């Protein structure tokens, strides 16, 4: 499949890899000897779901697969398309099939499609009218219907490494046809490093930054890269040290009960382009790890914030996250659950296969009853005196073990 060579199109579009040999990163997915590499080579690609962050090559890889298998590539967006668009695609796919040509249907942001839309697609995937390649930034286990999920292979794409991004930038600077080679742009080593580092593993971000810098200077310096990054987005590396520094600051501010500091660090992340669902997931963890049984409403509050982010997105969901962060900061704290489960993990590592006591096993067959399963079990609701209903539930080696303080 050929790339666009239109010089007026964005650099990121012009530099899309045209084949597998140009594709950077994802070696665990398409490297030599992998399932997908063999499937492409043998023209036996099943329906696929690509799950990963933006700028990792999901759309590009789908186009490459279509090109390498000589398939007709048809594309829909999960945002604006509907059943009418799907019907037109299926009609074209059936014509292709009658003429002996395969069709790959690529659905970008498939998680945006409703259950009804996904149900309508299912029979055409089952019959092989189309080979589906769906792209999503959300966990397909939650966003794709189970019937469609079971008929597809799910592959996870990782953010590109800084080395991958740096190589992509070098290619763009040297490519005379699709890139900036004819402009003879030079880039300083430290400028290349910061551009690669602050792309957050997103090829599109890196190439857009490069294009902006190349529009104002023949020699790209670190100062110029910083200036361009600061005008387009706050200087914030989603995958590097600053990312972890700031999420740590948010976590510790909430743990310490400082709602004002927690709001500040939340704002630093959101205004710099952090994915709100990432923050929401961390709040869900915090609700159980740092608050736990001290306030049973913290977990529903965090889950509600996650759902709000999922439903309405940025910028509207920033106030939902602010509400949850302040709630977590002001809530009473307890790490009893976290400490208890760590102790459980330690015991299971040391004694992984201790048998379930016979009296609390389920005697679902005659043989099990004969072997003593369920013998002596006390059915708690039958006892008015709960002291009389007491019995051991842990394996013999663990009797009397206390993971939680009474």
Description:
The chain is 50% helix and 7% strand. It is an alpha/beta fold and 406 residues long. It has 4 domains: 131 residues, Rossmann fold, CATH 3.40.50.300; 71 residues, Helicase, Ruva Protein, domain 3 (Orthogonal Bundle); 90 residues, Up-down Bundle (Zinc Finger, Delta Prime, domain 3), CATH 1.20.272.10; 53 residues, no CATH class. The chain has a 5-stranded parallel β-sheet, with helices on both faces. Strand 3, helix 6 and strand 4 form a beta-alpha-beta unit. The longest helix has 16 residues. It is globular. The termini are far apart. The relative contact order is 0.07.
Topology record:
Layout: H1 11-14, H2 27-30, H3 35-41, E1 48-51, H4 58-68, E2 72-77, H5 83-98, E3 103-108, H6 115-127, E4 131-136, H7 140-143, H8 146-150, E5 153-156, H9 162-174, E6 186-187, H10 189-197, H11 203-214, E7 219-220, H12 222-232, H13 241-255, H14 259-271, H15 276-291, H16 298-312, H17 318-330, H18 336-350, H19 366-370
Parallel strand pairs: 1-4, 1-5, 2-3, 3-4, 6-7
